[in-house]
């Protein structure tokens, strides 16, 4: 009698482990590059497999047309205000109602070659403020 119950317990444990192995195998197959997701798995399940928040799945991405329009507007601002860097361009875009991150503006300006070169400081090479006599220019 004790052997029969022990065998039944082992069989249920084996069945549970086989089910878990099947789930893990499916997860590994889904995480491989280029794998197709079956429609039976919900978005929540997919996000749990990849260990991501559901909000990550629903986060909006910019389309190619939106990116192009944003790059065009950044180029317009850079030609209108040549000394504007990303720190000034970003608030200007936000004031116009565009939701944009400063890092995206930096990347787009760098890719388009619109970065502002810093002004060179004037370096004084002669010290004229001294107590010594000033010699005549003999040339």
Q: In percent, how helical is the residue content?
A: 55-70%
Give the number of domains: 2
Structural class: mainly alpha
Sheet of most strands: none
Order of helices and strands: HHHHHH
- Low-confidence residue ranges: none
Global Rg: 33 Å
Keywords:
139 residues, mainly alpha, 58% helix, 0% strand
Characterization of this structure:
- With 139 residues, the protein is mainly α.
- The chain folds into 2 domains: 2-58, no CATH class; 64-112.
- Helix content is 58%, strand content 0%.
- Helix 5 (86-95) packs across helix 6.
- The N and C termini lie far apart (121 Å).
Please describe the topology of this protein:
Layout lengths: L1 H30 L11 H8 L3 H5 L5 H17 L5 H10 L6 H11 L27
Helix pairs in contact: 5-6
In short:
The chain is mainly alpha-helical and 139 residues long. It has helices at residues 2-31, 43-50, 54-58, 64-80, 86-95, 102-112.
